[in-house]
Amino acid sequence: MTYKCSRCKRDVQLDEYGGVRCPYCGHRVLLKERAPDVKEVDVV
Amino acid sequence: MELRVVDRTDNELRIEIAGENHTFMNVLKGSLLRTDGVAAATYDVNPEQSGGQTEPILSINTEAGVRPLDALEEAARGVSDQMGSLGAEIEAAFAAEP
Amino acid sequence: MTDQFDVSFVTREERSARLLIRGLTPATANGVRRAMIADVPTFSIDTVRFVENSSVMFDEMVGLRLGLVPLTTPLEDYEVGDTVTLALQKTGPGVAYSGDLETADDRVQPADDDIPIIELKEGQRLEFEADAVLDTGKEHAKHQGGVAVGYRHLQRVRVVGDRQEFDDPEPQIVRGVIETEDGDVVHTDEFDNDLRNRYPGKEVAVEDVPGAFVFHVESDGSLSVEELFVRAVDSLRDRADELAEAVAI
User: Fold this and answer.
1) Region of residue B52 (left: phi > 0; alpha: psi -120 to 50; beta: else)
2) Rounded mean pLDDT of B55-73?
3) Mean pLDDT across chain B
């Protein structure tokens, strides 16, 4: 899972052990980034 | 356009014209009513009440000696001819107008 | 059937026209109107593949807006169901317009270049590839070529006498197109829809002219008014031919 730290703006990889915390600055607010794959949308 | 004869006697025809709606059916009905030998013509785009049937059913009654299918063919050809000349007139009008 | 049609223009503009057709039955007039709205196909964006969308709108919202952009449609070379690919790349700040769409076929392009899709702020980016598909208004309203298609009866105005001096000065409002006693065809806008302006001090009678219909057709730019009309009439004719063939067997 890729997130972005809301304070230091660095990309963060989270695993199931580390808890929700930025490993670089210790900030606890992480933002989930949009997935990089192409999304297909049907126009209805 | 899929046709299915529902009911047919010498002077009566009920035929389902699948895939059509008021756009064509009403024009066809109008043409049938002006066709010689047609006593009555109508269509019904059956509402849900009739068991979910929604394809239009055309009913034609003809006078003695006229086969309903012949009348239908004549009416369809009438619509075709009419639309042919209307299309030509419209094209001519647009060609004349710069 | 011995139908004699007579077609003439009342007004003509780039994307709209008023056409007077004589010799129509109400059924055919309505058939042609309905066919113009629902049975003449035009291109419209139907699937969008978003590579990047960091704008403030969801992909689906941008997609919906794209579907509503009218695309010019060369009907002679495409059949219903055919697709053409379009693409857009735009980085903010700035507005992404319909004119920014790039197309695989130059004949299929936005009818208007100045339709805003979305405003992008600094750092926002929109990039996608889209498939436009040719289909009819029956399938989805975005495929409608005619946006304002309707008709009115031609109305004949006759002077039946003089208005009495102390008669009620009530307005006599008429809308549409009238035919005067001299045979002139005049749109009621020209006299502010009030027959008192056209016939001051006169008593007039108004009646529908049988079989004469004034069509007002406005296109969204994907097709010309002529193409819209002719294709609608052709679609009715094709269906009549198909039925006649099927019944003849």
Assistant:
1) left
2) 92
3) 89
